[in-house]
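Design request, tokens follow.
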């Protein structure tokens, strides 16, 4: 009887430990995504100043600037899912790359102090988002390992925890950048 009671206590302690570990890993994933969200918000908030500075010089790029403003407006509405937010970020990054390439055609803009500062801040923001994505993917991998490996898989199954996809680049983002195509477009 005492042996059975000890076995039950050990099983209960292991179960509690696995449960707490899974909760901690899931919270870590949510926290890591929140860091990405904060960085995206910082970048979205940077856009109005960048657009106003660029608008003064780039009269012929109104279509591109309008698209960037539209994407930013969608991003800050607050009624979008995380997946939609990431998709908007991808589109915004592509548009901003086009904008930065077109800046080469405007020497006065390239020399503008405000623009140089905003461009530096934008680049720093890109680097911070990349670091936050790496942290998120590491947290997701840790979480996925915990829910897929035995005995965590038993507790995860009871809790109905599902694997989470890591953030990956799209096929378009994986392509080699062709300077010739960029300057001919």
């Amino acid at each position: 009887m005492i042996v059975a009671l000890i076995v039950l206590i050990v099983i209960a302690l292991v179960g509690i430990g696995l449960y707490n570990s899974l909760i901690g890993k899931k919270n870590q994933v949510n926290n890591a995504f929140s860091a990405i969200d904060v960085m995206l918000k910082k970048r979205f908030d940077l856009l109005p100043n960048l657009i106003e500075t660029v608008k003064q010089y780039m009269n012929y790029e109104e279509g591109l600037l309008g698209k960037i403003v539209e994407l930013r407006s969608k991003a800050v509405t607050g009624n979008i899912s995380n997946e939609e937010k990431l998709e908007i970020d991808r589109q915004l990054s592509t548009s901003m790359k086009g904008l930065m390439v077109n800046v080469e055609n405007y020497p006065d803009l390239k020399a503008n102090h405000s623009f140089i500062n905003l461009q530096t801040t934008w680049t720093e923001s890109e680097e911070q988002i990349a670091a936050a994505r790496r942290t998120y993917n590491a947290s997701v991998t840790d979480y996925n390992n915990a829910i897929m490996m035995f005995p965590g898989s038993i507790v995860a199954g009871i809790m109905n925890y599902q694997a989470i996809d890591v953030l990956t680049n799209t096929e378009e983002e994986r392509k080699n950048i062709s300077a010739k195509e960029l300057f001919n477009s």
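Comment from the thread starter after seeing the answer: thanks! Residues 2-55 form the longest helix (54 residues).
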